[in-house]
Amino acid sequence: MFRRESRLFSFSAIKLTSALLMTSLLAGCGFHLRGDYSIPDELNTLSLTSYDSYSTFTRMMKGQLRLSEVKIVTPAADVPNLHLESESIGERTLSLYQNTRAAEIEITLYASYRVTVPELGSKTYSTSVTRSYLDNPLSALAKSVERDMIEDEMRKLAATQIVRQMARLKADIEHNEFDTEEDVMQPSVTGNETQYQVKTQVTDSAVQ
């Protein structure tokens, strides 16, 4: 019994040592694990400005950047900047009950933001996150709580999408110019996010 436990301990120790060694090698080669997205080195450090520095969306954006190991610093002329221009939520009725009250509602969160890279230029994007849900007037309080949770999840997805879009700027930075052609990014959404539709498009670009 003692020998078996000893062998198990030795095997676990070997796995742990191997994992630590691999992590050290990756770090030594300049490779960093940054969430699910590879942020260009030029955007490792940036400033974050916003239409409302204390909004929930701004707070979530800061959290997503830190999760991707992006250092947030004070704005400066020689530092890349991510500026959150606006955030709004709209809705439309998809179906009605017999008493003409809304039965199914579609909510869309719109976020506009601008990424500026010194000596390269800036790009302004618009991201939308859409989700529908059933409204039950007999459980108004519960539905109100659910609505708040849905809106926060939409903000989280929008923040994640912004980081994805920043990762896509790697090619522009390598070519030392922003692609001024309008592009549309509609990522596949899987897992718990299947109820949401996410879309991003370029709305403006300025080359320095």
Contiguous runs where pLDDT drops below 50 for at least 5 residues: 2-35
User: What is the count of DSSP helices, taking H or I runs of 4+ residues?
Assistant: 4
Percent strand: 25-35%
Under CATH, the homologous superfamily reads Lipoprotein like domain
Number of domains: 1
| Whole-number mean pLDDT | 78
Q: How helical, in percent, are the residues?
A: 25-40%
CATH overall fold name: Double Stranded RNA Binding Domain
Q: What's the CATH architecture name? A: 2-Layer Sandwich
What structural class do helix, strand and pairing data support? alpha/beta
**What is the top-level CATH class?**
Alpha Beta
Number of strands: 7
Largest sheet: 7 strands, mixed
How many whole angstroms does the radius of gyration measure? 22 Å
Shape: elongated
- What sequence of helices (H) and strands (E) makes up the elements? HEHEEEEHHEE
Structure summarized in a few sentences:
The chain has 208 residues and is an alpha/beta fold. The protein has helices spanning 2-28, 56-67, 140-167, 170-174; strands spanning 45-50, 71-73, 81-96, 102-117, 121-134, 184-185, 197-207. It is a lipid-anchor.
Description:
The chain has 208 residues and is α/β, with parallel strands linked by helices. It has one domain (39-178, 186-203): 2-Layer Sandwich (Double Stranded RNA Binding Domain). The chain has helices spanning 2-28, 56-67, 140-167, 170-174, and strands at 45-50, 71-73, 81-96, 102-117, 121-134, 184-185, 197-207. A 7-stranded mixed sheet has the order 2-1-3-4-5-7-6. A hairpin with a 3-residue loop joins strand 4 (102-117) and strand 5. Helix 2 (56-67) crosses helix 3. The longest helix has 28 residues, at 140-167. The chain is elongated and about 60 Å long. The N and C termini lie far apart (71 Å). The relative contact order is 0.14. The model is unreliable at 2-35 (pLDDT under 50).
